[in-house]
Every structure is written in C-alpha cells, then in structure tokens.
Automatic annotation (TrEMBL):
InterPro entries: 4pyrrol_Mease (IPR000878), 4pyrrol_Methylase_sf (IPR035996), 4pyrrole_Mease_sub1 (IPR014777), 4pyrrole_Mease_sub2 (IPR014776), Dphthn_synthase (IPR004551)
Superkingdom, natural source: Eukaryota
GO biological process: methylation; protein histidyl modification to diphthamide
Protein name, as recorded: diphthine methyl ester synthase
Key words, A-Z: Methylation, Methyltransferase, S-adenosyl-L-methionine, Transferase
C-alpha cells in the first residue's frame, strides 16, 4: 500500500491526523521520502519521529559505523531472475576497504504471477531470507564475476538476527565459507542481516567481533593473513 496507494494514505490528511508506522528509520527508503514530498505538495504538514534501525544497530557486531560504505540489498534468486548488480557496490566498498551492510530480502503479502494476473487476492506465505541463503547467493555471484571481493575462505563476514538488544539477538562471525556451513538454527529467527568486513578493519573491531566467531583461530588467522590486521 505504501508503494502503490500512497494517495489513500494522504487522503483527508489535511484535516485529520494520519500516522504511518515504519519498521526501521522512516528515511531509510525513498518510498517514504516520496510520501513526504507528496504531502508537502498538498500543503499537508508532516512530522517525523525517528526510529531504531539496522543502519545504526548494526554496530552491535563490533564494527565501527564510520567504516561502513554503501548499503546493498540482496533479493531472492529465482530460476529466471538472478540479479548481480549489487556486486559492483560491494566491490567499490571493498576497494576502499569499507564494510558493507547487506539487507536481506523480505517477501510478505506477495502474490504468485498467476494470482496476480487473475486478480485473485491470494497471498503466498511470508518468506524471509536467511544468512545461509544470502551467503550461497553471494558465493554464486563471486564464482560468476571472479572479482575477488567475496572469496569464501578469505572474506570475513558477520551475520546478525533480531538486532535490538533483546534476548533473541544473535551475532555470528566467520568466513563466508564458515557461515555457509552452519546449520540455519545457529543464526536464530528472522529478520537477518549480513555484514561483509572491509580490509581497513581496525584491530579493535576484529577483537570485539572475535567473541562471535564460529572459530576464533580461523577468524584471527584470516584477519592477520588476508586483511593485514595486526593483533596481539
């Protein structure tokens, strides 16, 4: 509705109070910026109350927010659609030594192509991309692109789920290969996010995230041998 029926949200908003609750920060997506611009065009006053977001809560993994580059989104691959344009953004970040926050796909209230074509309001079960699924897609694209930015055994990454300080929060660190080999239960319940660690990683970041590592020896070895990080 936010994307296709924004006019309905703004209907009568010049005389009534209308609230739009957003998961994450309201200015984290251009969709919400568009609604504000539409409201301004209609002379409807707006007020934004900012919310907790993965964009800042990702700091729970121990990596410094100053060292993050562009954020990318990863969608579910299908038999006929396997987009890989996100790889270019990851490589740009990697070339600068910056970390990359990867936002994983969410499929909620989605219709099949047949139901959509027939106008039937029948929705598919919700789907939330898991960290193993995300890593397998990243590895597939690396094998295709051969750009060297996502080598499974030499790329450090951190998986996060239900970040927010609650009892269900999980943080799991390791190489992409290690994360791919873990059982899904290790990562906890969705929503999941993934961080690709950049080569300019500070030794304090490595030491902090080490407590979440699948294998601390491997984590430290790759950090020193591949990333050139000096550890005591």
């Amino acid at each position: 509705m936010v994307e296709t029926q924004s006019d309905d949200i703004l209907a009568n908003a010049d005389t009534e109070d209308v609230s739009l609750l957003v998961v994450g920060d309201p200015y984290g997506a251009t969709t919400h910026t568009d609604i504000v611009l539409r409201a301004r065009a209609l002379k409807i006053p707006t007020r934004v109350i900012h919310n907790a977001s993965i964009m800042n809560a990702v700091g729970a993994c121990g990596l410094q927010l100053y060292n993050f580059g562009q954020t990318v989104s990863l969608v579910f691959f299908t038999d006929s659609w396997r987009p890989d344009s996100f790889y270019d953004r990851i490589k740009e970040n990697a070339d600068l030594g910056m970390h990359t926050l990867v936002l994983l796909d969410i499929k909620v209230k989605e219709q099949s192509e047949e139901n959509l074509a027939r106008g039937r309001k029948i929705y598919e079960p919700p789907r939330y991309m898991s960290i193993p699924t995300a890593v397998s897609q990243l590895v597939e694209v690396e094998e295709k692109r051969q750009g060297g930015s996502l080598k499974p055994d030499e790329t450090l990454a951190i998986g996060l789920s239900r970040v927010g300080g609650g009892a269900e929060e999980r943080v799991v660190a390791g190489t992409l290969a290690e994360l791919l080999s873990q059982s899904p239960e290790v990562f906890g319940e969705p929503l999941h996010s993934l961080v690709i660690v950049g080569k300019r990683v500070h030794h304090l970041e490595v030491e902090y995230a080490e407590s979440f590592a699948v294998n601390r020896e491997t984590w430290r070895d790759v950090a020193q041998r591949v990333y050139g990080c000096s550890l005591d």
